[in-house]
Amino acid sequence: MERIYLSSPHMGGAELKYIQEAFDTNWIAPVGPHLTGFEKDLTSYVGVDHAAALSSGTAAIHLALIILGVGAGDEVICSSFTFAGSCNPIVYQGATPVFVDSEADTWNMDPDLLKEAITDRIKKGKKPKAIILVHLYGMPAKVDEIMQIAREFEIAVIEDAAEALGSMYKGKKMGAFGDFGILSFNGNKIITTSGGGALLSNNKEAIERARFLSTQARDQAPHYEHTTIGYNYRLSNISAGIGRGQMEILDDRVAGKRNIYDRYRKQLSQIDCIKFIDEPNDTFSNRWLTTVLIQENNKKINKDHVRIALEKENIESRPLWKPMHMQPVFNGVPSYISGVSERLFHEGLCLPSGTNMLEDDHTRVIELVSHLF
Ligand SMILES: *Cc1c(COP(=O)(O)O)cnc(C)c1O
Hints:
Blueprint: H1 15-24, H2 33-46, E1 50-54, H3 57-67, E2 75-79, H4 88-92, E3 96-100, H5 111-123, E4 130-134, H6 143-152, E5 156-160, E6 168-169, E7 172-173, E8 180-184, E9 197-201, H7 204-214, H8 237-248, H9 250-268, E10 274-275, E11 283-284, E12 290-294, H10 303-312, E13 318-319, E14 335-336, H11 340-347, E15 348-351, H12 359-372
Parallel strand pairs: 2-3, 2-4, 3-14, 4-5, 5-8
Antiparallel strand pairs: 1-9, 6-7, 6-11, 8-9, 10-12, 12-15, 13-15
């Protein structure tokens, strides 16, 4: 049986044309017309004024923190229920992450806990420098509530929309709400450049600064002159070409992901112990990965049993992200915890959600899970 992957790259066709163009014009470097074109595609799609195409989403978060002036001894609040790429850059800067747990509706940062965390950190003598707000699995967080708290305390927000390109909150695309938005084009994301990311903002100087820092912070001079530390974080013109091709079919991919989710839900929701996450009012999820919770049942089947049974049939599935406050590397980091993300981690599973999965393959997964129960 052919392996069914969780979410594998899905090219649209135009990518090779853009790559060919880069070869024909010899723009084989982290500079060139596709970079500018890809940045333009991103700003008009998301609805922000400026974008810098970078080598990864993690690099985009790192540059956002640098531009916000986060340094040694500072504290930065971050969703606990996320991938490590969201919070590792806090540590690159010598700052301390402060983790905030999820609420049950969207699985994202709990606004009440956020407020509690900010108040408590201020009481302990340190106001957090920034908030990294994640929209996990494409589901928009409670943006209005979170942005209101951030404004009340005058703390900058970096929206981690790595998994949420194409998702919307009140008709506006994710990545356009915070002081910064970040995207990822890693191989498993909704669109890919094989590896890459972007930093988004309405602040022109900030994005110019990001481009400067991402190309080794070279000052204006005929020789190489440096007055600040730089990074090699720019996306290549070839990768940007792939990105331009992928942007042409992004809305098809969103529709494809949502179809996959609908099909799983229709066929599996008769099984009492399998729970799906709803879209709250005013939100539109790209459904990057279909996630389910496998709750206690009289067959004593848990999420690991399902995962192992799928693996036996050469089908890839994966537990939900292990919360950052439970990670050994972040042992002892200040955390504001309700138990929600821990429960989600224990019950949750990501099902194969690749838009290039054949309908028969999808049926194979659904029948296998149904059969187990
Ligand atoms: C993928 C991802 C990132 C990091 O993106 P890379 O491009 O892999 O560095 C950050 N946050 C979340 C939530 C992600 O899923």
